Amino acid sequence: MATIRDIAEHASVSTATVSRILNNDPTLSVSEDTRKRVIEIVNELNYKPLRKKSGKADKPIETFNIGLIMLNDETIDPYFQSIRLGVENTCNQYSFNIASTFMVGKSNITAESLSGLDGLIVMGDVDIKDLKEIYYENNNIVAVDYLPQDLNVDVVISDFEGATHQVLEHLIGLGHIDIAYLGGRGMVYGVNSNITLEKEDTRKSAFEKIMKEKGYYNPAKVFEADWGPSSGHLLTKQLVESGQMPSAIVVGSDPMALGVLRALHEAGIKVPEEVSVFSFDDIEAAAYMNPRLSTVKVHGNEMGKTAVKLLYDRLKGRTLPLKVTLPTELVLRDSVSAKKQ
């Protein structure tokens, strides 16, 4: 019997690409020729999706059909693409078939569309309580990059609190005590994109806590807006216009930092000679910005892999919910230097 791996080899694409084409993934970007070639090979090989064998739970299972629910636009923040790729590249090791992919706000996520899925991996600030209102078949849910209040789902997050502490210790060690924070507002979304509640971003809360403890906190230099380059640009212009430029800026994400660097350039403020900039994510573009961006490396690919492993463990019978916090690391480049006396 033909498998997805057979189709992938014949079409010279990845197994993840074959799976996403077969499931009409709206986020997949491939040429029409590739899509057509895969479908033709599916028909030629008479491929039939594997399903669970019927019978009792102790009988072997050929495959698990799972769903991905994604909140964030990968074109704005490539960090979430790295998480998704980590999930896709690991599924084959655990006999997972990504049967459905949903985008909050773009896909119609209903009880019917989730019915029959053995489990879900949810990426971003999606309200798990709201999700469970329509997905009540089991507790096989892994939340990635979000710590929900629900106590019976698995969670994969990064150590943003520890990372923020490292960033500030590094900056303070370079003589910076006048430090601003620019970040995005924490919003939690229902499965059909309605905002259900606000949450405080861990990076912002950690920044405020640490700066208060050290006696350097200035609430006038903490700014929030939407995530993304345009917000980084707007917030930096507001900071410049306030006439109280700090010696360093901590930015909540690399895409925001793009806008920050642009606004500082427009204002004639040199980085890092006049203002140091430190960010989070370490997206690929960070190493090619001008100046090259100092940032916190977040292991998105490993987060995706870990989510798959946790979900598999759940499907094999574990009932105790687990929270996995992955470490981060500082990547020091050209956008940070010692404060000039």
Please mark out the parts with pLDDT under 50 across 5 or more consecutive residues, or reply none. 52-59
Order of helices and strands: HHHEHEHEHEEHEEEHEHEHEEHEE
The largest sheet has its strands arranged as 2-1-3-4-5-13
> What profile does the largest beta sheet have?
6 strands, parallel
Question: Structural class, please?
Answer: alpha/beta
Number of helices: 11
Report mean pLDDT, rounded to a whole number.
Answer: 89
Q: Roughly what fraction of the amino acids lie in strands? A: 15-25%
N-to-C span: 72 Å
Give the overall shape, derived from the CA principal axes.
Answer: elongated
Task: Record the SSE blueprint.
Elements (H helix, E strand, L loop, with lengths): L3 H8 L3 H8 L9 H14 L18 E7 L8 H13 L4 E8 L7 H4 L4 E5 L4 H5 L8 E4 L9 E5 L1 H14 L5 E6 L1 E4 L5 E5 L2 H13 L7 E4 L3 H13 L6 E4 L2 H13 L9 E6 L12 E4 L2 H16 L7 E4 L2 E3 L10
Parallel strand pairs: 1-2, 1-3, 3-4, 4-5, 5-13, 6-9, 6-10, 10-11, 11-12
Antiparallel strand pairs: 7-8, 12-14
Helix pairs in contact: 1-2, 1-3, 4-11, 7-8, 9-10
